[in-house]
Amino acid sequence: MIRDNVRVLAAAFVSARADLKVIYTWRTWSFAWLSRILTQVAFYAVIGRLLGSAERTQYLLVGNAVFIAALVSLFVCASTAWERQAGTLPLLVAAPTSAFPLFVGRSAQWLLDGTLCASIALFVLSPLFGLPLPMPRALLALPLIALVSWSTYCFGLVLAAFVLRKVEVRNLVSGIGSLTLMLVCGVQVPTTFWPAPFPQVAEVLPLTHGLGAVRDLLAGAPAGVVAGGAALELCVATGWLVVAGFAFRHLAESGRRDGSIEFGD
Asked: Can you list the GO cellular component terms from the UniProt entry (predicted)?
């Protein structure tokens, strides 16, 4: 069983890489997509500069740079819905193996894209805005950004399971999800800025602890503090991955039972 799931996951990841090559060429990725990402992050950093505060500039730049990893990972909502639009969803559900490992790997291109875009935004824009990056310590932000991508991807899989039932709302669900993370997870303002229960909700959402770990890392916090934030982010990712597994299992079982998964939409 485990070997079959690993084999399916690996094959799905190969397909995801092929999709990324179809979606972008190196020119369109570099001069269109990446430039758009850098502009978005720089926009918020400029707000901090206009406020005349180096602290606010750093807060906004780091927050919005790491947020890019979450934003791109949530594209899993749309790309998962493509399976239904293409008419391949019934075939996946009818396969003798579990469909969940396939869906986990099928949109993994967004993990690569999100991690790379967020990392470039952080390391390119920070010097431009005069923000110090303590080297080589700052390089540890790279695995933390990858962890944020993964935890948000797991959260996005839960949303994707719902979107497969209502593919017409895929972009709306993804947009609401990313906006929620931007508002309550400490990207623009600390989580404590919001009244209850928003700070408590932020504790179980992806991005919150991972972003906090990046901020602590760049501020020179002890390794135990940074590792603690990373561990919490990993726990959140695991929790959402388990929920996603149950959600996709329910989708498959109910689809087989009532015939609600058709070959096209």
From this structure: membrane
Average pLDDT over residues 229-238: 98
Listing DSSP states for the chain in one string gives -HHHHHHHHHHHHHHHHHHHHHH--HHHIIIIIIHHHHHHHHHHHHHHHHTT-HHHHHHHHHHHHHHHHHHHHTTHHHHHHHHHHTT-HHHHHHSSS-SHHHHHHHTTHHHHHHHHHHHHHHHHHHHHTT----TTGGGGHHHHHHHHHHHHHHHHHHHHHHHTT-GGGHHHHHHHHHHHHHHHTTSSS-GGGSPTTHHHHHHTSSSHHHHHHHHHHHTT--HHHHHHHHHHHHHHHHHHHHHHHHHHHHHHHHHHHH----S--
- Which residues does 141 contact at the CB level (< 8 Å), separation at least 6? 119, 122, 214, 217, 218
Q: Which residues of 219-236 are buried (b: 16+ CB within 10 A; e: fewer)?
A: eeeeeeebebbbebbeeb
Decide if 125 contacts 41 (C-beta within 8 A).
yes
CA–CA distance from 43 to each of 65, 121, 122, 131, 176 (Å)?
A: 11, 12, 13, 15, 21
Task: Count CA atoms within 13 Å of residue 252 on its CB side.
Answer: 20
Q: What is the pLDDT of residue 250?
A: 84
pLDDT in tens, 93-148: 766 677 788 889 989 999 999 999 999 999 999 999 999 899 999 999 999 999 99
Q: Taking the domains of the chain in order of start, what are their residue ranges? A: 1-258
How far apart are the C-alpha atoms of 4 and 207, rounded to whole Å? Answer: 31
In the numeric block, which tokens belong to residue 134? 């303590």
